[in-house]
Write a structure and sequence with these properties.
about 150 residues; elongated
Length: about 150
Amino acid sequence: MSAEQMSRLDRVDRAILRLLQQDGRASIRSVAERVHVSRANAYARISRMVEDGIIRGFTARVDHERAGQGASAYITLKIVQNSWRTVREQLLSLPGVAHIALVGGDFDVLLLVHTADNHALRDLVLNRIQSIPQVLGTQTMLVFEETDQVPPD
């Protein structure tokens, strides 16, 4: 989000965003009541934030273990310089990839992946990711427990 977009968000917009992050299925009526605006005003604000790309979509928070994805890991990648776009496109096609970030520091890319089990995770890392020609090296960190940060009321 740009500094200009942040400056356009007032207290009510930020309250709406917090509510939708807590419950993306909240009705317009419920949101309007909780932030003390009319339904039309809440609807217009949400629509504007969607159109401006501030709200990129609505999604469900998933318990990956209960959903049959019992192994989660963060995987760091070192990649060939200037190959980010190519690598990103290949990573997007892999099963179980939940998040991809280009980062600065000791490695270039950080992935969050969810797989059925450690065997599937091993296959993903050793056979799929490490076979991408621009990937120079990987490091895998198993996730033992996760906690999603939900914005406070």
